[in-house]
Amino acid sequence: MSIRLLPFRTGRFKIPGMGGLGRRTVWLGLAALLFFISVGVSVTVGALQYRHQMRLERNGMWMTSQASLEAARFSAALSQYLVGQAPAWAVSERFEIFYSRIRLLESVPNEHGGAAVDMLERSLPELMLRLDALDADLTAVLGGDSSMAQRLLRDFNELDGRLNELTRALHRQAQHALDRSANWLSGPYWLLLGSLLGLLLSTGLLVWLIVVEGRQARANLVKAEAAAESQAEAERMLRTLIGGVPAMIGAFDRDGRFLFLNDALARFHGIREEDAIGRSLAELGLELGGRDLLDWALGSTGPTPQTERRVRNREGSIRTLLITAVAVSGEEGRRGRVVMAALDITERKEAEDRIRHLAEHDPMTDLPNRLLFSARLRARLRQAQAGQGGDFALHLIDLDGFKAVNDGLGHTTGDKLLLAAVERMRGCLRADDLIARMGGDEFAVIQAEARHPAEARRLAERLVRIMAEPFEVDGCQIRSGASIGSALGLRDGQTLELLQQRADMALYRAKADGRSRSVLFDPAMEELRRNQRMLEEDLREALERDQLTLVYQPKFGLLADRMTGCEALLRWHHPIHGAMNPGRFVPAAEEAGMAATLTRNVLGMVCRQIRDWQARGLEVPVAVNISASLFATDQAVQLVREALMVSGVPPRLLQVELTEQVFIRSADAARAALHSLHELGVSVALDDFGTGYSSLGYLQHLDFDVLKIDQGFIQNLGIRDDGAQGNGARGNSLWIVETILRLAHGLGAEVVAEGVETPEQLHLLREIGCDAAQGYLLGRPMPAEAFATLFTAPVGGAVPHAEGRAQDAQPARP
Question: CATH no. for residue 384?
């Protein structure tokens, strides 16, 4: 098994003129030198410290030993004196020597500490006190006082014993120091042996490094040759890659001469690389980039922003290129080369333009949509405010009857009608006018030149006239028409929102006045709008305070000759304006979004009245008209279901009347609503039948229980074509009523004639077999109590009435 050692690497320190091997040799030499210096210093310091400590230990021990020796000599001299064998002066001399030795113990150094030396320092004060006491006793004994001899000997023995104890302690500490020094000297010994072993290993490592460096040098040479080959291969691969990408890439010097270009760039301009190298774009007659882009790149620190430029290719076609350039730094940071890249984004730009066009234009008519129209109108306002565009006018256009055509004849016919209407309107406009489709059958026109209100009126009236003419669609003649509301720029609105709002006010007025007409905004319309809002607030307050009431118009069965039910009619006595016509406040409620609230209120009052009559033993079917706007969703059915559940009224006693507007808004929603109402057990009546555009078409698909013939046909019964009136005469209205009657009976529906006012009308209706009738001849609208009184009476004689004729024309239509 072989082990591969990684080459030893040093830090970033470098010695000039030396390679890796020389640097490693120097570092190893320095390491060995430092090693030997460290060992020598460690041994020397240790030895000095040991000798110093031993000297200190020996000095303390020597002094205590000398003191003990002199104490023995003093004891011998004292004993000889006490037996008369020694003179007093000899004893005194020995005591002085002994005293001096004790005093020397105060000079023992304590630099390194130790328990024995510390004990010596603590004991010295006591020794000195004992020594002074011994001195006094000795003086007395030598003076002839023999009685002090025993005390002298006792004090001396105690002092001698204490001194011997200190001597033994110092001896033990010296012995411990010797043992510790011996152990301490073993460390440097092994350290020295380890250092010598490391030196041998370092020498071997040095030899190994020399061998490894030789092998590494040979390996590096092989790698350098391989890197050169790899670099050449990478260069070939890079050229292949650059040549294969769809982007056009070229390299230039500072003077704009080609240094390199790929195949895509050569194909785009129809040139060859060998012909372009060394020549500038201007010399070749090419438009790519240009000198300005080259200078821009040379003066920038990074790539230039991507810019779009339109460039002609070799075939002469104008293409859109996305171009960027970047300068390449050479030696010493000089920027003398530029690389330019371009991508042909012509197809992408065309796709973006198509997407933008689709986002800003109506897909069917290709007219600007609401988004683009708003932007153009806002820009036109800014120009006019800056005095750059002159006066202009805004016309909002609604096609009349388009919904009926779309529902009755199909969406395909409706789309063709829209296209035909657009072509007609375009024919009335000038080149600088703008027409847009705002949605559905709504259009808008910006009249570029309208210096006077008369010019705006003329264009609007011309549009109304041209749109009133019949359209030929799929071989059918269709009449539509247009209602137009106009406003003058700046004069009628300084902002987009205000101008559109006032043009919309004029359009609303045009519709309210009967459609197929044009109206120019007048400031008085805002006053009407304010009054309308005030009316809405008053109506909202009236609903909250239960100020609305109901009256009931009798409905008579002509075959049974008796009262069969009634129709609930809504009334409002305004606290300021008095009796308010339902034809005014009911549409106001619908426009203010109160249709559901008003309907809930009316249904609640009707159901409570039915329940009250039931409590009195009267089974009275009541018809109530519900707003067409509620049938666009399931709201109408929900309100009826809610009223029946809350009141507990039998569904058979409630009849829902609706007009043709329900089907014009949404035929599918109306069909679903009728089905749901029948499931609830409620009967459904079609009110004002015969006045709409396509009522017969609805009868083919919708299941009605009752058809109420519009009073316009009933009023003409008995009138000849020449205008003469006579008994039994049959005019056109009679034939129409008879046809409706047969049609309804064929569908299984009951027929009710509205607006019966003369005995002759009643006679003719009975003669042709009409089921029921209502009108002033039979009974005017009256309060609930009056109706209950007449409910069981047969038809005949004058019927009491409670209200004047002016208020009886409108049903309770929330």
Answer: 3.30.70.270
Amino acid in position 451 = R
- The distance of Cα 711 from the centroid of its chain, to the nearest Å, equals 59
Q: Tell me if 372 sits within 8 A of 436, measured CB to CB.
A: yes
Coil, helix or strand at residue 519 = strand
Residue 762 has pLDDT above 80, yes or no: yes
CA 629, distance to chain mean position in Å, is 36
Rounded Cα distance between 231 and 335, Å, is: 24
What length is written for the chain? 814
767: alpha, beta or left? (left if phi > 0; alpha if psi -120 to 50): alpha
- Torsions phi, psi of 477, nearest 5? -100, 120
Do β-strands 750-753 and 471-473 pair in parallel, antiparallel, or remain unpaired? unpaired
Q: How confident is the model at residue 775 (pLDDT cuts 50, 70, 90)?
A: very high
Q: Sign of dihedral through CA atoms 379, 381, 386, 387? A: positive
My answer on whether 513 and 550 are in the same domain is no
- List residues bridging with 320 in a β-sheet: 310
Q: For residue 237, what are the CA distances in angstroms to 222, 244, 323?
A: 22, 10, 24
Domain extent at residue 272: 245-350
How far lies 752's CA from each of 563, 628, 695, 739, 762, in Å? 13, 20, 16, 14, 12
Closest by CA to 760, choosing from 727, 721, 783, 805, is 727
Output the CA–CA distances (angstroms, integers) from residue 810 to 591, 662, 776, 814, in the order listed.
18, 18, 13, 11
- What's the one-letter identity of residue 76? A
**pLDDT digits 0-9 by tens, 426-452:** 999 999 999 999 999 999 999 998 888
